[in-house]
Design brief:
By secondary structure, this protein is mostly helical. It is built from six helices and no strands.
Amino acid sequence: MIAETVCSAVAAAGLGIAAVTAYRKRFLAATRIAAYSLVPLGLVMTGVVEWLADTAFSPAAWAGFGVLGVSWVLFMTTRAVERRRGGTRKERKEARAAAERDAVAPAASAPSLGAGSRQSTRPATAPKAQGGDDFSDIEAILKKHGI
């Protein structure tokens, strides 16, 4: 009963502030304030406030929230363990079978295509940076890695 009274008072005060704001010719702000102030009144009229008040003071409801929390923790723990192992047992078995099926012979690890006639679209040497910066160390590292 007190919660409904407080929500109604908040709605009335908000509508009063909206009226003053509209009087000052700030209609967009006044409309936004009126919308926010009508929310508590709508919650009271739909019965949500009464339901929340009954839930907040009910030990059974808090026990239910506790059970939901334990359920969530268990679910997240199983998901974390599943990710560490690489999926479920069935998924790991299928992945192992696929890896054996698609295995490549050791001699076939070299590229089967010879050196093609494909020309590089990049220039052989990179243009020097302006401003006197020396990037020779970086170029050497990139050439070492074949980039």
